[in-house]
Input
Amino acid sequence: MLKPDQSAIPNTMTYHLYDLTPTDCIRIQNDLNEDLPERLSHLATSAGTTPGISFEYETSYGVVCHLNSWVIDTTRNHYVVEIIYGFGVIRVLLYLNGEKHLLETEYQTCRLKPLAIEDNEKKNWVKSEAIEALDVLNSGMYHFDE
Output
């Protein structure tokens, strides 16, 4: 799989909003189980719904619900989806061509915590992808302060 490369990234982002389907949720479960660090392997989940809750799909990062929407970049292997994690905190998964970036809001706010990426060029790229995708997913509800 190709790694993000600034020179290969088109300037036009083409994120589109879609309703999640059960098949999409299973894809997300599988993507999140890929390359799970050994210390977190106990968090790997099996594909399918949460027992007794036909619309929730447990992942190692929280729950994906097929009653929600997600955004997909139609020209690249990128998508963004909200993950139900806990009361007062929302997680947003950015899946960018195989790389997973988990964004989290500060408690009971729509303010996203700063990205923990040391490489400034990559950090700026991930941030711009997040802003563009979240604008489509939530009409800009989430924001960075940095």
User: Anything to note?
Assistant: Confidence is low (pLDDT under 50) at residues 1-11. The longest helix spans residues 120-138.
